[in-house]
Amino acid sequence: MRASGARQTACGQAPSSLTDYERWFGSEHAHTNMDGDDGAAGSTAAQAFAYAKNLPHLDYFIITPHVHQNRSGPATLWGEATYDLIRASAISATTPSFVAIAGQEVSTISSGGHWSLFNANDMVGTDHPDGDWNDADDYYDHVAGLGASGEVIAAQFDHPQNGDFGNRYDAGAAPYFGTFAVSSGPATATTASFANDGSNSSYQTRWANFLNMGWKLSPAADQDNHGATWGASSSEYTVIVRPQGTALNAANVLHGLRDHMTYATEDANMQIGFTANGWSMGQTVGGAANIALTIWWNNPSNTLYNNNTGATATESANDAIRNIWIYQNSFSSPVITYTPNTISGTWNVTVTAAVGDWFVAKFQDSSSLSPGRNSTKDYTWSAPIWYDPIHADAPIVLACDPTETPTPTDTPTPTPTATSTATETPTPTPTLYCATLSSNAAEELFVTASDPDKVKSALANASSNYTVTLINAAVQWPGSGSPTIVWHDQFTADPGAVFDKYLWGSTTIVNPPNITLSQGSAFNHALNNFVIGTNSSNDFALDFTANLNGSVPQMYRHGRDWMIGLDYKVGNLICHIDLQGRYGPVITPSLPSVVTAPTFVVSAEATDPDPGGSIHQVYFEVYDSSGAPPIWTTIERAAPYCLNGDDGINCYPISSYAWPNGVFIVSGATYTITFQALDNDPHQQYTRVVRTIQFNSSTPTNTPTPTSTSTPTPTHTPTPTSTNTPTSTSTPTATSTQMATATATSTHTATPTATETATPTHTPTPTATPVAVVVFNFYLPIIQVQ
C-alpha cells in the first residue's frame, strides 16, 4: 500500500509526517507444492506470485520453500533447478507496482524455529541433519559469506522457540538478519478472506531476548501460507518503511528488510511512523539522552480486495487507536502509555535513555477482521530505535529525486513462441540491480596521509551491460565522537576545511563554488549525469583546497566524519547508496589531576568502535612548561596502555619525584601529557587527546628517601668544594634562590620547604631531616653545572 499525498518536507530533510514515508505492505513467508514442499497440492511459484499480485494492497511477496533433509514428516529434498525456476517466476511476476522474490526457509520442523533467507543466488543445501540449526555456526557463516560476496540478501528469524538459533549473537551474520517474526500464520488456513488469526502468543518476548543479545531486528508479521491463500488468509503484514520517493524494486525491498526498517501489523490499513531526535524508527540514534519522539498514526477503514476469489473485507469506520505503549529493553511493562482514541494523530513524548537502550512503540486498535482478536483487537509493533550516539546511523532524509522509474526487467521480454512455459523461463534481458554499483564494504569512505586533500570512496560498476549514471550527491559533515567533533586532536589546532569539487579519479565531475565547512555542514549538488562505464572502477572523491591533516603528517580526521548519499541510475532503475567511513580510535585517559601521593599511574583506555575494529598502538608524550620537545615518550601496543609499562594486567606506578627516564619532577609544576591512538583500519586513523597533571609542592618529600639515603657521603664532598663555606649565612637563602631559578630541571626540589626545618635541626637531628637535606644536596651539583 504505497504512501500517498504531497511531499511535506524538502528533499534532504528528515521526515516530518506520515506522508514523508513509503510503506510497502507484504508477506515474506509462504509455500507451494513444488519439489515436495508442503504447500497447496499441485501449486507452483508462478501461481502463488500471480495470486498475491491480485491483492491490490500488497506491494511485495516472498515464497520460502522448506530446504532441509530429514524434517519430521515427508522428506523435502530440493534440486537447484527447482529453486532456479522459482527465481525465474519471481522475475517474471515483478512489475513497477509489485515485487516478487524467491526465498528459502531453512532447517527443520522438529527442532522448533526456522530462519528464512531471501534472494540468495543458490540454495543453502540439503546436507544439514535434523536439528542441526540449534548449533547455528554453519548457517551463520553461510549467511555472512553470501553478504560479504556482494549478494543482495536478507534473512529473518521465523516462529522461534526458546534456545533456537544457537541462542547467541553472531557479528558476521548480523548485518543481514534484519527481521524477527513476532506474529505468524495461521499456516494451515484454507479461507482467504483476511479474517484468520495469526499467533503472537510469546514471540515478542523472544524478540526482546534477541534484541538484548545485540541483534538489531525489526518485527515481521507473516502468514506462513501453506494453503492456496497467499497473502489473503489474514490481515497481518510486514510493512517496509523507506523515505518517500524510494523506488519500489527488489533491491530496495531487500534493503528495507535487512536494514530492520519494518513494522509488523495485524491491520492491513495501519500506517505508522516516528522519529527520535530526528532519526527514524529502525535506526541507531544519537543526540540528547532525553530522546524526543514524534509518533504518527493513521488507521483508515479501507476495503481489502481478493481479486482471485471476489472476497472483500472492510473494517469498522471508527477503528480508533485506543492504546500506544512504549517499551524499553523488555516487554514486561510499558514505560509510557498513551490513550488517544483517535483514528489518526501525532504524539510528542520524551523518553530517557542510556547508551545501548532500545525502545519499541506498540499500538492497539479498537476493531478487527479476525474473530480470534475480539478481546485484544489488532496490534502493531514498530521497529525499535537504539540509542548509541557514537555508533549512530546517518539519519534518513528524503530523496531529492522522487521519480519512480519502472525497471526494464519488470516487464519480461515476450518470446516469439507462445508456450505454456514462457513465463517460467528468464528472459535474455540482463537483470537490473542497484547493487551493480558497489563500494568497498570494508571502508566506504576514507582519508589518507598520502593523498590528504581528498575524501574517497572506491566505487565499482560490476555490470557488463549497463552503465551507471551519477545524479546527485548529498554530503554531510557531522563529525564523530562524543561530544561530536570533526578534528580529533586536542594538541594542534584544526586547520579548517574548504570543499572544492567532486572527482572521479583525476577527472572533475562538477566544480561548484567552494564551501567552507563548519560543524554540521550539509550540502548537495547535481552530478551532471556523470557516466561510469561498464566493468569500471575508480575513486569517487570530495576534493578540498588544502590538506585535511593540517601541518602534521598524522590524519586526525576520520572517514566516519563524512557521509555521502549518492543518487544514481542503472539503466532506468533509480537507486541510492549511503557511503560512510569507519570510526577512528576513542581514547579515555586515566590519571590524577593533582598528585599528592608518593606514586601515581597514567594510563589510557583505547578502543575502535567499528565492528571488529582494533587499536594498533597508543603513543604517550610528556611535556613540561617549556613545551617541545617532549621530556618523555613511550609506545604501548597492547592493553593495558600505560605510561610506565605494565605486567600484562596492571600498570607500573611512577614515582612522584621523577619520570620513568629519570627526569626530575618539579614540585608545584604542571605537566602536559598527550595520548595518541592509532587504529588498524585499512587506512589507519589517529586520535589525540591532551590532559594536564599537577604536582603538589608538599607531596614528593617522602619519595626520595629510599634513593637518597646513601647520598650523604657524596654530598659532604660537594658542600665544602662549592664555596658553600658560608653555609651558615647561605642556608636560608643561597640554595633557596638558586632553586627558584632552576625551575625546569629540578623544580621538584622545591621540596626544600623541608630545609627550613633543616636549619634549626642541622646537626642534632639527621634522622628527621635527611629527606630534605639529601634532596637539597643531591640537586646542588645540577644547579652548579647550570
Report a brief summary of the structure.
By secondary structure, the protein is α+β, with helices and mostly antiparallel strands.
Can you characterise this structure?
The protein is α+β, with helices and mostly antiparallel strands. 14% of the residues lie in helices and 30% in strands. It contains twelve helices and 42 strands. It has a 16-stranded mixed beta sheet that branches. Strand 17 and strand 18 form a beta hairpin. Helix 1 packs parallel to helix 2 (80-93). The longest helix is centred in the C-terminal third of the chain and has 16 residues, at 770-785. It is globular, with a radius of gyration of 34 Å. Mean pLDDT is 81; it is low at 4-8, 70-75, 129-133, 401-427 and 698-786.
Structural class computed from helices and strand pairing = alpha+beta
CA gyration radius, whole angstroms: 34 Å
Shape: globular
Number of strands: 42
User: What can be said about the biggest beta sheet?
Assistant: 16 strands, mixed
* Cα separation of the termini: 85 Å
Mean pLDDT: 81
Characteristics:
786 residues, alpha+beta, 6-stranded antiparallel sheet, 12 helices, 30% strand
